[in-house]
Amino acid sequence: MTWMRDERSTTWARDRPDSAGAYVRLHRVYKVHHIGDTGVVALAGVDLEIQPGEFVAIVGPSGTGKSTILHLLGGLDQASAGIAEIDGQDLALLTDLERTRFRAERVGFVWQGAARNLVPYLTAAQNVRLPRSIGGRVERVRPDGSAPPDTGALLSIVGLAHRSRHRPVALSGGEQQRTAIAVALANDPALLLADEPTAELDGEAAARVLEVFRNVSRELGATVVMATHDLLAARHADRMVHLRDGRFRHPGIPLAPLGPDGAVRLPPDVAMGFADAELEADVAEDEVVIRRRLERGRE
């Protein structure tokens, strides 16, 4: 048996210093897809925290729920149970109109097929300008007081300033995907979601796309969440989390067998971290997750 410490921050997003990135929190999130009279569990109580400006890769084979998590974070779908929060806002409490505005103002999407992200008859620069041509958006205030990057700056960030006048058909697959990243960043989103962005690219093109994601998190402060089955791609992220059977799997600490009284003895340094705290535990077939219990169920 292994023990897994499930650490939680007790500082809420509204109490944090202003940040260009998003603070992401999933708490006991379940998602069940209904096919006829049958319910298929896509997510089985996942917990995840992502700090502002962090680049996180969600890794797992097809069908494990990676895309489902991106859809929940992007406001494209709602959890069956649990809490999905961005910057302290429970997305389940938003109206349809508020959710649409949230996607337009706070989230950028990069899909697997670059063709999905670009308008074929527009140049790279025109594709990047297109999201900003839609009226009604309220500009987000950046922490350092700077203006959001313009079209030229975004194309420079993705390494395509010299290709700004080319249409997608004249760009390679990797260039198309990097243009798609610039498009996703056009409205200066706090959160950038990428679903298998390198699946159709060769090694060199994929490496350049992944380097762009790192630059985006560092230079623009955006929080980047990438779903991928490619462990090599995931190693470019600041942190990698593994999803299997709708649950995150984390490296655990081996424990001694249960005592005759059913007690579990924790390592001394771990036990000290939980001193004087009220605890709760999730018990699965191959792991035990122990966490602090806080007021109103917030952890």
How does this model look, in words?
By secondary structure, the protein is of the alpha/beta class. The protein contains nine helices and 14 strands. The chain has helices at residues 66-73, 96-106, 114-117, 124-129, 151-157, 173-184, 203-220, 231-234, 268-273, and strands at residues 2-5, 24-35, 38-50, 55-59, 81-86, 89-90, 107-110, 191-195, 223-228, 239-244, 247-249, 253-254, 279-283, 288-292. The strands form three sheets. A six-stranded mixed sheet has the order 7-8-9-4-10-11. It has a four-stranded mixed sheet with strand order 12-1-14-13, with no helix packed on it. Strands 3-2-5-6 form a four-stranded antiparallel sheet. Helix 5 crosses helix 6 (173-184) and helix 6 (173-184) packs parallel to helix 7. The longest helix is centred in the last third of the chain and has 18 residues, at 203-220. 34% of the residues are buried.
